[in-house]
């Protein structure tokens, strides 16, 4: 069989060939030579709904993610994992061993942190894109600041790193996050923070025992989730009364996991609260389904409250990491009203 001389074909033909390849095939082709890289770079078109994902846990890799598709691009493993090495490639000035895993190419590095940097830089340059979805694991906390410095903005951050007070304080106060900042980090209840929070559409903390009412009031995200909180019903009551006065106007959904939940105590003294026993579905939509997609909230019992701006919210006993108080502000993502 004779190899097809792609680099010698007319421009229109080579363009169509490149665009018919899967993303992983485009990456492999680009690594063949400098000419091949230029060919892919000038011809490739990335659909608008594809978002570049960077994962830094044991499955370290870059990938494209959309609502319906997932395409792994390049993996990153230590050189000690050399059982399936098939050869070497040249990538951004580095010669590294490679292997094949499932359906994507894996690069082997003496320095994993260097590998993450090089592979990320290669893929963002090849596709002329940014990292949209960032999965941060323990020992890779530096990646958040590095990506933020490169892009000046983060889009979706799923943070599972090791707790570091100085690092977390800096990231909370300085990060510019567009869509989501969700932390699975085990943050101790003794942690204290008094600054501003990132302002993404969605913000959440699995370990939220450190979050105070003042912290909650300073969050301006549309969707807020606080797990393992130390809030009392009286705290939530104060928050709702402040919302009733027109503050926290950006809020669309709030879920707070609490040690004890009494809806009556939460609503106590709130003027105009109306008991409801009607079934409703409250839908929250996000652009990405990658992390903790939010199912519709099924409402059958709760209280409707209306703030000074005429905005209605339904307060219910829900479930988020356990018994929770949930506040659903109407209309929902489908523009449904109660």
TrEMBL record:
Query: What is the native source organism of this protein?
Result: Caenorhabditis tropicalis
User: Which InterPro entries does this entry report, sorted A to Z?
Assistant: F-box_Sdz-33 (IPR012885)
Task: Tell me which domain of life the UniProt entry assigns to the organism this sequence originates from.
Answer: Eukaryota
Q: Which residues form the Sdz-33 F-box domain?
A: 202-256
Note the Pfam families from the entry: FBA_2 (PF07735)
The protein here is known as FBA_2 domain-containing protein
